[in-house]
Amino acid sequence: MILVRNLRLPLSCPDPEQEAVRRACKILHLPLTRAAHTGVAKLSVDARHGTPVLVYTIAITLNDEGEESALAGASPCVCFTRKPEFTFPQGHAPLAHRPVVVGLGPAGLFAALVLARSGFRPLVLERGPALSRRVEAVENFERTGTLAPNANIQFGEGGAGTFSDGKLTTRVGDPLCAFVTEAFLRHGAPEDIAWRQKPHVGTDLLRGVITGIRAEIEQLGGEVLFDTALTGLNVRGGVLESISTTAGEIACDRLILAVGHSARDTFAMLHCAELPLECKPFSVGFRAEHLQTDIDQSLYHGAAGHPALPKGEYQLSQHVGSRCVYTFCMCPGGQVCAAASEEGGVVTNGMSYHARDGRNANAAVVVSVDGSDFGQNPAVAVAFQRRLEQAAFRAGGGAYRAPAETVGSFLEGRGRLELDRVQPTYPRGVTPCDLGSLLPGELAGDLRTGLQAFGRKLAAYRAPDAVLTGLETRTSSPVRLLRGDNLQCISLPGLYPCGEGAGYAGGIMTAAVDGVRCAAALMRDCAPAKNEEN
Questions:
Q1: CB 345 within 8 A of CB 304
Q2: Per the confidence metrics, is the pTM higher than 0.90?
């Protein structure tokens, strides 16, 4: 396959994709008749200099693929690439029992998929329900305030990523990203995730993709036990022998632990078992909501609203002393979610549907904390998260209402919710609050400084009626379970800490890639169990 990059076209171009293909062929001195296939490999928008410009990378496959490498030097913007082929070598010693995967979020889902495709028939444990019942529980919580601790935005089939924008953006240049994308496409994700600069599936479409991948795992001999939580690890002679679960004891000598960033009871169990946990940096803050039209105008200026332009997205950061204030998980045309998983705590998150057609944009605005804030004690870090969430619950007045304040008020420390153009979307309702009083003074001050800096970078952040809803505390796991180069826990062979909950990923794509990587590491050491009953 030949890639022709940096084909820049104005918004006024009537058919930019076809024009980009024409220009690519011209650069290659290639008649279109010699191409077996042409298509968009990447599309981005360059709005740095006022009027936005569409920037294409075009992929071309020739009828005679053997000629492609000779065209790679036609221009500095041309390169030759091969579609990656993924093979996962296996060891020779059969496992005594089929491998167990704990957690059916992106990491666990893809670990199980790779194992199933390789004949290992994994057993997958998910503490929450299947997706249909999980959606019902989330919708019931939004209506009534009745929280199901194991069926919510954090727990259940698909993990926390299910109720998100379905963003697949990552800075990780791992070839395994292509494996993950291919699996998403095979199970019904929109085709444009293969070439968008910032691909997203959308919460609504992501649900079908997740259940499709789970169905493939089951068709290949894997088994999924829903409503089944891990409660203990049983070790003999320094070797993992079995696991305890809410469904009983299960023989297990290979365990991929992909529990997600909110499995606090699991973190406590690991700590009691004296496994090597350490503090990992994370961040806390709130959700900021602006009108999507304000974001678009800030980014695209006079071209805002042009049908060729995607909904405006942004990522902002500002160092404040030793900390960083930044935006995270920006959801164009989305809504703020009620993401609690423990009674008596309020947690916010954000999501968008595929169309991204909501009136508001939202993003987390957070400030970093790390082990030095907690005496390098993971239990203290988790307690800090919980304390903030409980304070937000009290400030909201109960019933999982969330505390909220408009930006102008927060910057001045007035504790007011002065609603105007921006109406909050948090489904349980909001209560006016001095958000700064819910956070340690240093963190509140850093967030104010960061917001002021953001206003100098993006005009929408100067809007005093933007709404801040709190608190956002689950940006990532506060702990890391240490693993070695073989991806096994450094003190317990056979245990593979995996994904975001174990401290090795952040977001859907990186978690899924880590799941693939852990499954591959497991398979390198062994072959599938011979006994079909195990």
A1: no
A2: yes
